UniProtKB/TrEMBL annotation, chain A:
InterPro entries: AAA+_ATPase (IPR003593), ABC_ATPase_HisP-typ (IPR030679), ABC_transporter-like_ATP-bd (IPR003439), ABC_transporter-like_CS (IPR017871), MetN_ABC_transporter-like (IPR050086), P-loop_NTPase (IPR027417). SMART domains: AAA. Residues 7-241 form the ABC transporter domain. Keywords: ATP-binding, Nucleotide-binding, Transport. It comes from Aminobacter niigataensis. It comes from the Bacteria. This is ABC-type polar amino acid transport system ATPase subunit. PROSITE patterns: ABC_TRANSPORTER_1, ABC_TRANSPORTER_2.
UniProtKB/TrEMBL annotation, chain B:
Residues 157-351 form the ABC transmembrane type-1 domain. It comes from Aminobacter niigataensis. The keyword Signal does not apply. This is General L-amino acid transport system permease protein. Pfam families: BPD_transp_1.
Amino acid sequence: MSVNATIAVRSLSKWYGSWRALRDISLDIAGGTCTVLCGPSGSGKSTLLRCLNGLEEWQQGEVAIGGVAVGYKARELRRLRRDVGMVFQHFNLFPHLTVLDNVTLAPRIVRGRRRGESEDHAMHLLERVGVAEHAGKLSSALSGGQQQRVAIARALAMQPHVLLFDEPTSALDPESVKEVLDVMIDLARSGTTMVVVTHEMGFARRVAGRVIFMDKGSIVETGAPDEFFDCPCTDRAKAFLGDIVNR
Amino acid sequence: MATSSLVRSPVSQSPVTAARRLLAVVVANPFGTAVSLGLAYLAWTLGGRIVDWAFVEATWVASSRAECSPDGACWAFIVNRLPQFAFGFYPEAERWRAWIVLLAPPLLLALAMAPDFKGRRKVLIGGFCLYPVAAFVMLSGGVPGLQPVASDKWGGLLLTMVVGIGAFVFSFPIAILLALGRTSQLPAVRLLATGFIEFWRGMPLIAILFMSVIMLPLFLPPGVEFPRLTLAMTGITLYSAAYLAEVARGGLQAVGRGQSEAANALGFGFWATQGYIIMPQALRAVLPGIVNSAISLLKDTTYVMVVGLFDLLNIVTAALSDPNWLGLATEGYVFVGLVFWSLCFGLSQVSARLERDSERAHSRAPSGERKPQ
């Protein structure tokens, strides 16, 4: 869809001390698509995702979003992050602010929007994720599923070109998973560029354009969800999918 | 009636039941009962003597020690000297200014204590931030409509208030910068902040006061002179900043890394992250520690007597040598103690109220929402 939203990763490598978290990752993601990153824990999928908006530093390789290199210069990084939203496993809402303020703070402070304008937009977004009636409450008073939906609205409020999801449903109880997934499916169908680290294979099958399977810091397999789930090519992917299904 | 006994609350039980229960407690715990009785006896005899001295035998109106009853407290001394204890040597014609400065903090605290008062935090923070500068202008004058009054005329409780609140408010921003510096990624910044904190925290306040009043002027260019009050306040402010910085650092550590990550991911810069996200949570987390520092600082202001400032304690001490009122140290110091205690108790009450507020706000259950089954 949008040219701005293409993501390019070139020979990315990252070490934690002597341990190599990412091995020579190269990847292109087209704008307007939903990409699912999966793999066993410790496979580097979250690390890769966090490199995309510079939350992690790396030692080798390059990352660019919309043709703009993700670098170390604080100002450039800040500018880039305005356009790259992120949703965290543990929501990371601001507990001292109301739900509405959580959503409006960044547009007001970072983008310099006026309060009234950003509140109108925020209410619209809260409506969309189904938590509008809780707008006046402190975010810490909400259930996990509600908090994660507010977190999605908070990311959307910046009108990002790309949305990154880092295991958005892993910290939720089973009942709440569906409410969050429904919102994400809705976003994917409306053509938002999304990169999602998740174990929710049902979600991947329904809306992902591509599934990327990682293990031990490398991309092992990548393909359309139907191909990947129905006949994974590699033994490691087969073993992983077997584990997920039998869980 | 059988039915009414069911309705009755346990508080309004009949005396017989109450006595029976008491007996059960005594039988079950004879040692505890003995200790309780012993303590009650002590409280009765000691408390009785104190009440006798402070109220029953006390003299409230007299013109000298000789007119006071020898068996009780001579409060007349305090009553006669009250204006001086409150304002020091502030000129009588201008006392109304001192009154305003003196009454503003308790009024502010009282306002903040009003039940279910929404803007509590805003009023408190705004009020106390403005107070030092407003009080300074009000007291020193020199602006249209206010005659100038030299700061060496300020004294008593007025001085205690201005020094205590002023030093605390001014030290706050310094403390926040120091705490951020000490947790900074930059080694030079960290070293500077740590050095500053350790230096000021490691020195006795009395030494700091002597240094700021006696040594600091030596380093100033000739002709530049600051009043002793300003110099002393500079010293106390830096001393307090070092302590507060450590309290604030504790708060910073209480805020999870996810908070700054979330702010960064939204495009917040360092200062915006600190100002809007981290600090509000950090300071709230260590509110009891902040109030503790404030209380401790308020009492530490009594050290200004070593550099010849007449705060409440020093002015009362000075009054004890009045030949008309000799030998009234007990009354004087009990009075000073009570005043300080009231101020500190007021502070701790406000702090408790603020903590209850934020607890209530955070524990509010999600209403109007049904947990899916």
